[in-house]
# Entry
Amino acid sequence: MKRGIVFIMMSMMAFLLILTSALSQEDMVVVNDPAFETPQRPAAVFNHDQHNETAGIDECNECHHVYEDGRRVEDESSEDENCSDCHGLESSGSQPGLMKAFHTNCKGCHEKDGKGPVMCGQCHVRGQADNG
Ligand code: HEC
Ligand code: HEC
Ligand code: HEC
Ligand code: HEC
# Structure
């Protein structure tokens, strides 16, 4: 009898493990901002968590920033918003339009660090899986 229970427990644990690893495969792997309704390029590859870990970026607001009166707020972040919630397709004043916002953020850092892709086809990789 006891053995039966242990077996059931082990099976349940195995099932949970499989379930969590299946779920984690749905992590963000490309940038797919809904504001680009008819994208010209394949969505840019960006394995969110893995990228930030490898690149050693600790602060979420390195990308998910908040501005007040034209100044970046140190200890606030906006990860609950899409970039397009603030950046329109066209620029407005000193606020870059959406595509430029992405390119400046992504490519800008890669150029500054001398690490990470800077060529169109290295980010916009054809045949890349969608976010779904
Ligand atoms: C190198 C830039 C960068 C950093 C650093 C970063 N993110 Fe993101 N994150 C993005 C981009 C780009 C998107 C997609 C935004 C869009 O589609 O408009 C995103 C989307 C998200 C989303 C929503 C989309 C999803 O399906 O997961 C969450 C939640 C999120 N980030 C949380 C975080 C947290 C928490 C941190 C810090 C631990 C963080 N991010 C650090 C770039 C970054
Ligand atoms: C809560 C609103 C908000 C969100 C969300 C937001 N931004 Fe911004 N961003 C701004 C504002 C406002 C400015 C303009 C600051 C100024 O006037 O100089 C700005 C400026 C920028 C700039 C130019 C200055 C700089 O930091 O280099 C880039 C690049 C940029 N955003 C990229 C992004 C990206 C990429 C995302 C999503 C990961 C994002 N922004 C999300 C509000 C936002
Ligand atoms: C603050 C700096 C920074 C920002 C912002 C940034 N990256 Fe990176 N990225 C890096 C560094 C550093 C590497 C190299 C990591 C290594 O050593 O392999 C990298 C590597 C990459 C790679 C190569 C594969 C990988 O995941 O490591 C891709 C693709 C990439 N970045 C895409 C993006 C995209 C898309 C964005 C914007 C949404 C972005 N990056 C924003 C610093 C940054
Ligand atoms: C470091 C990565 C990176 C590089 C290099 C890069 N892009 Fe992007 N680009 C992005 C991200 C992230 C977005 C936001 C939405 C997405 O994934 O398509 C974007 C958006 C775009 C968009 C608007 C959405 C669409 O598909 O219509 C165009 C057009 C575009 N890029 C063209 C280019 C061209 C042309 C080059 C080379 C000159 C280039 N990109 C280089 C990351 C990159």
Residues 63-67, 70, 78, 81, 83, 85-87, 94-96, 101-102, 104-105 surround heme C (ligand 2) (CB under 6 Å). The first strand starts at residue 30 and ends at 31.
